[in-house]
Write a structure and sequence with these properties.
Blueprint lengths: L1 H13 L8 E2 L4 E3 L8 E2 L7 E2 L3 E2 L8 E5 L24 E5 L5 E11 L4 E10 L10 E7 L2 E6 L10 E8 L5 E9 L9 E12 L2 E5 L5 E5 L5 E8 L8 E8 L4 E3 L7 E5 L5 E11 L10 E2 L3 E6 L6 E3 L3 E2 L4 E5 L4 E6 L3 E3 L5 E2 L7 E9 L2 E9 L1 E2 L10 E3 L5 E2 L7 E5 L13 E2 L5 E9 L2 E11 L4 E3 L4 E4 L4 E2 L3 E3 L4 E5 L13 E2 L5 E8 L7 E11 L7 E2 L22 E5 L5 E6 L8 E2 L2 E2 L3 E8 L5 E8 L2
Parallel strand pairs: 5-6, 16-23, 25-32, 33-38, 40-46, 47-53
Antiparallel strand pairs: 1-14, 2-14, 3-6, 4-8, 6-7, 7-14, 8-13, 9-12, 9-14, 10-11, 10-13, 15-17, 17-20, 18-19, 18-21, 21-22, 21-23, 24-26, 26-29, 27-28, 27-30, 30-31, 34-36, 35-37, 37-38, 39-42, 41-44, 43-45, 45-46, 48-49, 48-52, 50-51, 52-53
Length: 626
């Protein structure tokens, strides 16, 4: 088979000038040289093949050929780097290195052809040279009992890529064997090297164009129908048999088979019963050859898709409690038609019948998919509406509990289970650690409903006296107390220097350091008292140090002006001895470390001015020691 494929390719190449317009039949043989993971494939092995070229399992030298899936590394810089015609990374092709003198590439016998039958060889050819050189120049010959037909290709230019070539010829009235030869007319040297791939040998005849009776090449039907449809084929005028004959074929997935009695250009077919994909095609040949498959040409197939009607499934949320909506569900399809009691209709897949409109009875859906329809029914039962009740919301103290009471059904299921004595009773005892909403699912007569109750666990109050405060003697500060809890009351002790000790945020104006305690007491039924303290520091005055040493030794590294930060609106300026400002700020939340935007100041004496914004201004000098 490998040899047959090579011979066909060469014959097609020789007749590159022929334009293929007609139809071909199923290939008598076709060769693509196979495929494999190894870069080099096996040599051609066929008893009917003769060649003056030898097989070489590598880069072919002059007068040799190889089978390979890539020319990578073969005559780098001179040959194209290519794979087979299809682009399959493992697909093999035949790579030929031309001999030094013109000679015969091969001689191949093809046996047992049909009489008075036209055949076509086709194949793909590639000039392997990257640059101009000696071009492949090949003469092809076909020898039959009636004589020999020859035709030269002429020089095949490089840069054309893979191209398909073909040749046709007619066998004599006796049919029989033929000899194909390929002769290299150009000598060896730089060039004249080719690659061959994808060779076929098939009957060749008039173009057949079949259609269904709706003038399409595809048709769809539904299993269970008994439709008939016409198959019609037109013959092009490019080529005609002298005495044509026809045979329609069907392929049900197991291969092409002749349809008995379907021997005209038009055929009335009956739809197959079973679902599946069916193909039809028309074959044609001279009348004397119509009984032989290798003598026929074949049309492109027509496709009949027989679809299985969808499996219709109708379901519903039944039984339905009175006053609730009904959900109808249909399996997937393209379109839907629902019908039901009281003249109900809908074209939705999953329609919803709103509360108050639901009726007991049978609902039917017709589902259509791909033009095929099937139906399904569902019976709907309407039950009385349930009225579940889980009781009133309640409150308990930490560590306490209470009995819940549910009504409205015959079965009960509580969730979550946390803190409950029994989730399957109407009256569980609840002892949650935190506030919890319990939901009870009530069941009766196949209907389900839910109700909820919240058990609030009253949290202990939380007292927060706020952050410690710092003021200078004569100043006041607001205490930042906060309280949380249920129905709480609060007061401060001691009441000294507070404007109102029963306020959560009183104003404190102490004359010395003092600790205030905030008392928070929750109300009934869970009476709990919590306390928290805040310390108020009272500075006697602002004290300005006259030196500091910012040398990062951990001692006196900043200009720490005690109590200055209690005057957040104050302004601070530091000057050099020349009157230039080297430091300034509003407020003094962070003590100065002797640095400026330009870097650390040198040691020396500097002068300051501090305006407390209360009518008091402080000034003097400070020395930076390093």
């Amino acid at each position: 088979m490998r040899l047959y494929f090579l011979l066909v390719f060469i014959c097609l190449f020789a007749f590159d000038a022929f334009d293929v317009k007609a139809q071909v039949g199923d290939a008598i043989f076709s060769i693509d040289f196979g495929a494999g993971a190894n870069r080099i494939g096996p040599q051609i092995d066929n008893s009917d093949f003769k060649t003056t070229y030898s097989y070489y399992p590598g880069t072919p030298q002059d007068g040799s050929y190889t089978i390979a899936n890539s020319t990578q590394g073969m005559y780098t810089g001179a040959w194209l780097v290519t794979g087979d015609h299809t682009g399959n990374p493992g697909g093999y092709m035949m790579v030929v290195g031309a001999n030094e003198i013109p000679d015969e590439f091969f001689n191949q016998r093809i046996r047992g052809l049909c009489p008075n039958t036209k055949y076509q060889f086709s194949a793909y050819l590639l000039n392997l040279m990257q640059f101009d050189g000696i071009k492949p120049d090949i003469t092809f010959s076909v020898t039959t009992t009636g004589g020999t037909i020859t035709n030269p290709t002429g020089p095949i230019n490089n840069g054309l890529g893979w191209r398909q070539y073909s040749i046709t010829f007619t066998t004599p009235s006796t049919g029989g064997d033929i000899i194909l030869k390929m002769t290299n007319n150009a000598g060896g040297g730089y060039g004249n090297d080719i690659a061959l791939d994808d060779i076929t040998f098939s009957p060749y005849g008039p173009t057949l164009t079949p259609v269904f009776d709706n003038n399409t090449t595809s048709f769809t039907a539904c299993a269970g129908d008994s439709k008939t449809f016409s198959l019609n084929a037109q013959l092009a005028s490019d080529y005609r048999y002298t005495n044509p004959a026809y045979q329609w074929q069907i392929n049900d997935g197991s291969g092409w088979a002749d349809i008995p009695g379907a021997t005209t250009q038009s055929y009335l077919a009956t739809q197959p019963v079973a679902a599946g994909i069916y193909q039809y095609r028309l074959t044609s040949a001279e009348a004397i050859n119509i009984g032989s498959g290798p003598c026929r040409v074949v049309s492109q197939p027509l496709t009949l898709t027989v679809k299985q009607p969808p499996q219709a499934i109708a379901t519903a949320t039944t039984p339905v409690c009175y006053g609730e909506k009904l959900n109808l569900f249909a399996s997937a399809g393209d379109s839907y038609i629902w019908t039901g009691p009281g003249g109900y209709t809908s074209n939705q897949q999953n329609p919803v019948i709103e509360a108050g409109s639901v009726l007991s009875g049978t609902y039917q859906v017709a589902i259509t998919t791909g033009g095929c329809t099937s139906t399904s029914n569902v019976d709907v039962e309407l039950n009385p509406k349930l009225n579940p009740n889980a009781g009133e919301n309640v409150s308990i103290c930490p560590g306490g509990g209470i009995t819940l009471h549910a009504t409205g059904g015959t079965k009960f299921l509580w969730s979550p289970a946390t803190g409950l004595s029994d989730v399957n009773t109407a009256t569980p005892f609840a002892m949650p650690d935190t506030t919890t909403t319990y939901t009870v699912m009530v069941t009766s007569n196949g209907c389900i409903a839910r109700a909820s109750v919240t058990v609030t666990v009253i949290k202990d109050p939380i007292a927060d006296a706020g952050p410690d405060k710092q003021i200078t003697l004569g100043q006041s500060t607001r205490l930042d107390g906060t309280a949380s809890g249920s129905n709480v009351a609060y007061y401060w002790t001691p009441a000294d220097y507070l404007d109102d000790p029963t306020k959560i945020n009183p104003i404190a104006s102490p004359t010395g350091d003092i600790t205030y305690t905030l008392h928070i007491t929750s109300g009934a039924p869970c009476v709990v008292t919590k306390t928290d303290q805040v310390f108020v520091s009272v500075y006697k005055k602002v004290i300005v140090p006259n030196s500091f040493s910012p040398n990062n030794d951990g001692f006196n590294d900043t200009w720490n002006i005690e109590a200055l930060y209690t005057f957040p609106e104050s302004t601070i300026q530091v000057f050099s001895r020349y009157g230039n400002i080297v430091y300034q700020s509003k407020g003094y939340a962070k003590p100065w470390d002797g640095n400026t935007a330009k870097g650390k100041l040198p040691a020396g004496t500097y002068y300051y001015r501090i305006d407390l914004k209360n009518g008091t201004t402080l000034s003097g000098w400070v020395e930076i020691l390093l």
